[in-house]
Amino acid sequence: MSLLKTTVGWVCSIVVGMLGFCMPASATAGFDPFAAAGIEQRTGARIPLETGFTDQDGRVVRLGELLQGRPVLLAPVYFTCPNVCGAQLATLFQVLASVGYRVGKDYDVIAYSFNPDETPANARVERDKLGKQWPQLIDAPGVHFLVGDEAAAKALSNAIGFRYRYDPAIRQYAHVSAVGVLTSQGQLSRWLYGLGYQATDLRLAITEAGRGQVGSLGDRLLLLCYHYDPKTGGYDSLVMGALRVGGLATVFALAGFIGLALHRERCRQRSGE
Fold first, then answer.
1. Mind telling me which residue stretches traverse the membrane in this protein (predicted)?
2. What is the pLDDT of residue 9?
3. Each residue of 213-235: b (16+ CB within 10 Å) or e?
């Protein structure tokens, strides 16, 4: 029953989020959420390590302090979001529950708010809500829910290419749903977009960001069989890609063979005449 409620909640959040972009023109005149929100690909960019935030317990921390030699999953959200942010975090932890890696051992999670009006209490409410469903993940020492002032939020968001904007007409933020994957040094490795990524995508992203320090030999060999597609934010099988290319080549080869055979047959018929 709890899974059904969670699923229904996600669907409702997505629908509400879509409706938020379909407000009457009078309510959103001059504001284009599709132009305001987005992600600029900045692979290799480093997060501002000296930038300070406050965690869900009211403790002031620098981003550099949260890097513990492991890959980091970085989720830009705001905790009072009425649309998709709750579903975004729920999706992340649901998928992490089946990844097989250990939070606080193989990777860490940072969810930060880009809404400067939010407080540690807002972060704690969201954390506690998720903790009811995934307590073993949420209670791990490597999971952090952060809030900060406008300067801190912009510094981090700009560094990773995450664009958002506040719409005062509806008192909401226009933003996309995505999870960034950082290396242990705080460099952006990959983005996973939306709510549709799979456990394989997340596991491969963590393995890749770990640069040989995370995952088994089998995981690293599996990574050789996949490539990251920045357009979809997921991993595609190189084998399937090769098969698709090979299949297309076979079709062209057969077409050429048939065409050549028909040409020769016509030539023989003309010679017989």
1. 238-262
2. 46
3. ebbeeebbebbeebebeeeebbb
What single DSSP character describes residue 213? Answer: S
Q: What angle separates helix 199-210 from helix 217-224, to the nearest 10 degrees?
A: 100
In this structure, what is the dihedral angle of CA atoms 173, 179, 183, 186, given to the nearest 10 degrees? 10
> What ranges do the domains of the chain cover?
33-215, 227-260
106 in Cβ contact with 44 (< 8 Å): no
Count of positions (residues) in the chain: 273
- Coil/strand/helix, residue 15: helix
Record the tokens describing residue 175, joined without a space.
Answer: 């933003």
For position 32, what pLDDT does the model report?
A: 77
At 143 the pLDDT is 98
Q: Which residues of the chain have pLDDT under 70?
A: 1-31, 211-273
Q: What is the pLDDT of residue 21?
A: 40
- Contacts of residues 232-236 at CB distance under 8 Å and 24 or more positions apart, as own/partner, are 232/193, 233/178, 233/190, 233/191, 233/192, 233/193, 233/194, 233/197, 233/201, 234/192, 234/193, 234/197, 234/198, 234/201, 235/200, 235/201, 235/204, 235/205
CA neighbours closer than 13 Å in the CB half-sphere of residue 240:
5
Q: How far is CA 87 from the centre of its chain?
A: 13
The Cα–Cα gap between 86 and 273 comes to 79
At the topology level of CATH, where does 33-215 sit?
Glutaredoxin (3.40.30)
What's the rounded Cα separation, in Å, for the pair 262 and 268? 10
Both tokens of 82, joined, read 């009425």
Full-prediction pTM beyond 0.85?
A: no
